[in-house]
Write the structure tokens for this entry.
Amino acid sequence: MKDRPALVYADAEGNISDWPALEMAGAGAGEWIRPHFSELIELPEGSELFLLPERLPVGYNGSQRRFETLAADPFDPAKSVCAVAAFISPAYTHLLSPAYRTKEGAPILPLFAYTSVGWANGGFVVPAVRIDSDRRQDFCNFDLKLIERNARKRMRAESKNRLLQHLGKCALTYGCPAAKNLFMNRWEAPLPTSPECNARCIGCISRQEGTGLSATQERIGFVPSPEEISGVAIPHLQKAPRAVVSFGQGCEGEPLLQAQTLEASIRMIRKATGKGTINLNTNGSIPEAVEKLCRAGLQSIRVSMNSARPQYYEKYFRPKGFSFDEARRSLSVVKANGGFASINYFVLPGFTDQKSEWLSLKKLISETRLDLIQMRNLNIDPEWYLDILKPDLREKKLGAGRLIAMIREEFPSLRLGYFNPSVE
Ligand code: SF4
């Protein structure tokens, strides 16, 4: 790529076009930035483009050397325009948010991750890196006809298993990649169990109250029995290549609130098969329960974190009866039991790469002997998030790409990825 990508915008009818008079720009926690060529990749297959209502696109004027707002349609100045963002595919970590100017009274953006997007060499480009080579959620790898056939067949054959019926709906209605992999008998399968949660995350995708935002996932409404859970897990662990079954999904609350059910299920599963990996995705709120699950056979844990700085973690999770300390201790408990520990690290460019965040992350990695950081894109309106957390935006930003390089330099044996690995 030799020329700087052009700005992309949407006209009043929602048609997306490029405007070569301005270069593509990105943002880091509200600071507008010219993306570096080395940060740009073609828009990954399976990504989507979103219009950002009541937000004007901002680009860079190379000849005037300044950022400029595209206030109206360049082809019809009487018409309005709006900014455009990419919602990039799993396995990619974004490096810059979109650059835009928000109009007074603009609605909060829905719970998706917003990435800067431009136009170059006849295609869309984004500032992002492929952080995980695992192809388990690559768009091209899903055989929808096979998934439909297998899901319907199993839902008929196991009509009494409520969890399987729930996962059939997740695969066929919501298109959940983990549920789709269950019905393709491969890789990681989901085991949601908990209607309740002991946190009130600002960006919770399964429950939103008083924000005017809709949750993007319907929360499970029952606690499956150990028989229903192992009925899904055992055949998957026995048959699937690189098999992983994971408690803690987007369509539920906190699985540790169902610790007794999880413990009984893990014992039932391990009585039937020693194959594959049993993983727990969690907010890590009850380390004592994690200890019991490790004794029962839990092999890996993924603790969700928007920040390694306790004050911002607690402003986001709004925990009930636990704190950042419990989440950190749950990681150490799994390591102490010989297990695999990772964090589900919500990346927001300009915030995650703040100097003080890096210093706190280094401390967390060293203290917990972490094995993996899943560099996931934070699904939230960046301005709304920063307005609630109120970090010092004058603080030095390292750049998300630079942060990834620094983690690799400082912790060469630490893995960076996007998915829960098989630890078999
Ligand atoms: S821990 Fe999970 S389920 Fe609970 S509020 Fe946060 S995102 Fe929602």
Q: What stands out?
A: The chain has two domains: 6-130, 139-417.
